[in-house]
Amino acid sequence: MYKVLIVDDESWVVESLKDLVNWEQYGFEVAGQAANGGEALTAIEAMNPDVVFTDIRMPEMNGLELIRRGKTMGKTIRFVVVSGYAEFAYAQKALSYGAAAYCLKPFDEIEIGGVLAKLKESLDNARPVREDMMQLLLDESGGRNEEKLLGMLGEQGILQWIEQGIVPVVAIGRSELPLPPGRVIKLITGTAKTAYLMSEEQSKAMLGKGKELWPEDIMGIGLGNRLTDWKEIKGAIEEADIAAYQCFIAGKPGVYSLPHTKDTELKSWMAEIHAAIGNKDSEIVQYNLDRIEALFEEGALTIRHAFQVYNLTISFLFDLGRKETILYSYEQLVRLFKNVSEMMTELKSLADQYVQQKSAHAPESKNQTFNPILQFVTENYRRDLSLQDLANQFFMNPSYISQLFKKEVGETFTAYVAKLRVAQACELLERGDSSIQDIAEKIGYRDYFYFTRIFKKLTGQTPTQYRETHPRN
């Protein structure tokens, strides 16, 4: 509830205003009263009201002076002037001082009700959402944390608001959506992702305006289910988040809801891929990847499934072990690939290379100690590897591993990794239309300019020149 302070030197006026309307119905409570401006300033300091109803003509300090001084106290207060004088000069001065409304005595119930409704909307929209409250809301809560969160939600009037029914909307992109009038809670949930909580009517009004009004960088919008319990917010935002990423599955911007998915089929086919990779059966691997891609095209899978398919397949192919269960997040997948079709093309190529041992097989070395290291680097060159990583992996001195590379391969560890990366970049440039920045990230280079220098050093051409001289077949 928003707190109200009523200021008037005539007590019957105060009681009349208190009894005139159902304050709670409008989201307010009369928390205090004062007989003059001086008392009012003391009460404001003590109770921190959201709204002050004040008379203009009072002893010691009039209402206009109260508004002026109240505005300098560093508090966000809405002042409403109540007066028995219908004089334009009073009203003009009160409004110039920042009064939200000017009401005449005797009071009219409809007029005061209308003022309260407008004040509530203004306060709802202006009230900042506390970051610590939102962190608690999105994290797992319980015990004292839950009590603290409930208190915050109550203070901000969110508990009552949720009971009326709200929906989560998640937008992927750095820009913000053009928001509808009324209360909307905004949460930054990623580097380029925002969640909004609003009423169902607001969501329909906002999303019904058409994509041409969206900021250009908005890739997708996910619409969650209506909820009436604060405990459902975290899960509802996660569902809307997954729905928003259907733009990656569909390959185009749009407003999406969660589809009906075919998890059982996917689980079965991933198991077949795992077994086929172990048996070096390229035909079965490709067959199942084709079937999974068909499910994506059908819209029967989500970004969560794309996350699983990509990371699990990479793990199967390169035997990364349990420590590498998460390779790319939702955001990273969307940044690396234009859509899920491009992601599946990449997986099929990698699977073909590995299972057929076309380029994933390391050159043989006479040094049996060095062979496992060489094979590991050959299979994992896209990762951010260092000599220290290899030393930790194989329990050897990094200087000794460096010497082995020079002796057995004829070049440094860094040069060997660069050759593998550039060779893969050449293949990607020849067969796809991914941006050079995306290709650089796929092969392990986060710095575009560094990648370009390395590429030109090894091939004699920039990536752009190479693509122009090696057109796609």
Automatic annotation (TrEMBL):
* SUPFAM superfamilies tied to this protein: CheY-like, Homeodomain-like
InterPro entries listed in its UniProt record: CheY-like_superfamily, Homeodomain-like_sf, HptR, HTH_AraC, HTH_AraC-typ_CS, Sig_transdc_resp-reg_receiver, Tscrpt_reg_AraC-type_HTH
Q: Which domain of life is it from?
A: Bacteria
Keyword check for Transit peptide:
no
Could you provide one GO biological process annotation from this protein's UniProt record? phosphorelay signal transduction system
Domain HTH araC/xylS-type: residue ranges: 371-469
Name of the protein this chain belongs to = Two-component sensor response regulator
